[in-house]
Design the sequence.
């Protein structure tokens, strides 16, 4: 059937709803879900050309599928990237990134405040294969510069970080990376392209856990890398064909549908998070609040500039505790006293989630690594959802008011 291409220069809210592969001959309005492992070919010659890459066409869903293609095109458009590749999870995206770019003898500079599994993957797993990683302060540009070596191939940061919401200067890190002949990868999980587009600020690759805000309702595991057409097609797709950290078409379809409401969800969740952060900052049982939307946040000005004037939907805070054991006990008390919030280590859901990072998301790190990353026992992280704010305050008050 005849189809019109999308007009140029569309707004992000429009791309989030409309960017996709062409409709099938049936003219479906909601993008189709192609649950098939393989695709038939009209003849041997066409099959040969498609398998060799000489001709476009769908072959095998490990690396080519129309539903996954729609999700990739939509996310790339939102990020302002030329291309995107979906992966089985956010950590699979980090794995694909490293497998595609690094070899034995290469060096990575990474923020020491990134997600715990990312630290383990870079510091331990890739260390087995001769890749070295220097972990530096998220916010100290001098440390990033001083860590560069002749073998540095990649700088990796997430901003804001999980869970302390530290914000790095993406443009400054891009300049440092490019001056050293390296690439900058930015994990944009907390902000999503609804708030922040790292490629516009000089980043080469954007990393996503689609499990979080891209899906938005805690339904599937998914990940993605966004970057230049050359990086995606020549570096990452060949690794995907061999290693198979593939995104399933069903999960791709769920994320594709989630992207349609990304902008309005982020707007509403950010507003609730800001109000919660203000309330927590004034609570007598709270020692400190970590939220980029607060003027008290050390990188508040930078965050407002990079993140479209919004602080995101994740708030972290310290409860009082004179010792590590007391801090852990008090954090557990607050979390266990909730009746509404979900006690789980995910984030990005429309349901508000609460967790103690030291024993969950960063539980596999050594105590030394946790302390270096600023993860104390009295720290609590709340990923704010779409419930009424008064109900969320009342839920936290059960524990805070009885400390």
Sequence:
């Amino acid at each position: 059937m005849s189809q019109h291409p999308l007009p140029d220069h569309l707004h992000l809210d429009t791309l989030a709803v409309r960017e996709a592969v062409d409709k099938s001959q049936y003219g479906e309005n909601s993008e189709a879900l192609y649950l098939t492992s393989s695709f038939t070919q009209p003849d041997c010659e066409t099959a040969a050309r498609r398998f060799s890459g000489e001709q476009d066409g769908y072959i095998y869903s490990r690396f080519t599928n129309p539903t996954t293609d729609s999700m990739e095109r939509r996310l790339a458009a939102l990020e302002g990237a030329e291309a995107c590749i979906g992966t089985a999870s956010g950590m699979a995206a980090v794995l694909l990134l490293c497998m595609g770019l690094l070899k034995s003898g290469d060096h990575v500079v990474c923020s020491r405040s990134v997600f715990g599994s990312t630290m383990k993957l870079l510091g331990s797993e890739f260390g087995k294969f001769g890749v070295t990683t220097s972990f530096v302060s998220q916010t100290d540009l001098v440390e990033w510069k001083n860590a560069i070596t002749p073998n540095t191939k990649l700088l990796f940061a997430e901003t804001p970080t999980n869970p302390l919401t530290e914000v790095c200067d993406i443009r400054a890190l891009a300049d440092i990376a490019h001056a050293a002949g390296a690439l900058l990868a930015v994990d944009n999980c907390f902000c999503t392209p609804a708030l922040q587009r790292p490629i516009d600020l000089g980043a080469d690759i954007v990393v996503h856990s689609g499990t979080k805000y891209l899906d938005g309702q805690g339904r599937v595991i998914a990940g993605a890398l966004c970057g230049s057409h050359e990086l995606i097609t020549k570096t990452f797709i060949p690794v995907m064909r061999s290693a198979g950290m593939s995104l399933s078409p069903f999960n791709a379809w769920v994320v594709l549908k989630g992207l349609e409401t990304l902008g309005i969800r982020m707007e509403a969740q950010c507003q609730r998070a800001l109000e919660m952060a203000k309330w927590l900052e004034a609570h007598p049982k709270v020692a400190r609040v970590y939220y980029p939307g607060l003027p008290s946040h050390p990188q508040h000005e930078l965050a407002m500039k990079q993140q479209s004037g919004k602080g995101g939907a994740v708030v972290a805070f310290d409860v009082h505790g004179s010792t590590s054991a007391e801090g852990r006990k008090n954090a557990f008390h607050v979390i266990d006293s909730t009746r509404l919030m979900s006690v789980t280590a995910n984030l990005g859901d429309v349901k508000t989630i609460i967790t103690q990072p030291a024993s969950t998301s960063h539980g596999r790190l050594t105590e030394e690594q946790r302390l270096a990353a600023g993860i104390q026992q009295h720290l609590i992280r709340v990923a704010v959802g779409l419930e009424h704010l008064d109900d969320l305050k009342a839920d936290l008050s059960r524990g805070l008011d009885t400390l």
